[in-house]
């Protein structure tokens, strides 16, 4: 059985083609910098990395390029598209309706569209990916895997806001949380690395990509997370502001006469690292500018790290005991100096960084410990594998044995599990 996993993010599309019977990845890759100059598709085939540069204006173009690669005779990955048994789709926001992965039908797709205004950078490309994939592969099952599902375990005290309670009842105004499949994967892997079961581990997981979120995970379930009603709340992100005083919005409406649509665009697409620097949303560009002496780029680095460091403190208090902290996603896995800035000065709460280990952890393939052996709180860099979560959910649904994540055991929870690239 061959499964295609699609993970359509705000500026990227990750994909993995997986052969379930052999527990083997046929290929995986990513289209990066969608809508940005210098976009490209990279994928692995026969142990080699292939990179194809092209102008990618939107997610439909990205999906088209992926399908072309999968069926290209030069690479010999697939003879034709009929070999694909099912497609798993990442969907960022499922509201309160979806607490687990589900087969996509017309009603499910309509429900996803109903909440797309809550995730304006993500649900539209997720929907675009679903619709485009169903056009190309109309006769096979498509499954939605929701970012919000993992965080449905949060208690009321964590997910409710101190606004009129009626807003929750009438409109579903509450904290939902996102990056759920990533937090699920790395938390289960961290528990295994600690020699614990998920039920025994207290963790702070930090997904740092273009979007950024941290989660407090107690006994294998999410008890708090930084993103809220939408993916706009929380940490400083590539183009999103994260936490801010709500009165700033009212103040700027009075000063500039902004309409709702203008403010939505500013807060989601013109803030964060881009807003501070005025130029850059990609950390690689920010870091280069900072190295060249750009003051605002340096300031963006400091603000981002400071916010993340505060969340480590807050979640340490919320959990009471922290066994480990996990960095994941592009920035978390590859940005050595970002991790150093975030963890600097946290020895008082049991985090002792090993500079050499941190410098060596610069890959998306290997799981690494970056604290000293005697550090009371361990810190790991764990490459996320959201696509594997998708694939295992899809296969379990097709085979009729799927349960919600609180009762489902994944293959990567096994202490003997090894990533193929290791």
TrEMBL record:
The lineage of its organism: Bacteria, Bacillati, Saganbacteria. Catalyzes the formation of acetyl phosphate from acetate and ATP. Can also catalyze the reverse reaction. The active site is at 147 (proton donor/acceptor). GO terms for biological process: acetate metabolic process; acetyl-CoA biosynthetic process. Its main location: cytoplasm. It catalyses: acetate + ATP = acetyl phosphate + ADP. Its EC number is 2.7.2.1. One of its GO terms (cellular component) is cytoplasm. The gene is ackA. GO terms for molecular function: acetate kinase activity; ATP binding; magnesium ion binding. ATP binds at residues 14, 207-211, 282-284. The keyword Transport does not apply. InterPro entries: Ac/propionate_kinase (IPR004372), Aliphatic_acid_kin_short-chain (IPR000890), Aliphatic_acid_kinase_CS (IPR023865), ATPase_NBD (IPR043129). Belongs to the acetokinase family. This is Acetate kinase. Mg(2+) binds at residues 7, 386. It comes from the Bacteria. Homodimer. Pathway: Metabolic intermediate biosynthesis; acetyl-CoA biosynthesis; acetyl-CoA from acetate: step 1/2. Pfam families: Acetate_kinase. SUPFAM superfamilies: Actin-like ATPase domain. Gene3D superfamilies: 3.30.420.40. It comes from candidate division WOR-1 bacterium RIFOXYC12_FULL_54_18. Keywords: ATP-binding, Cytoplasm, Kinase, Magnesium, Metal-binding, Nucleotide-binding, Transferase.
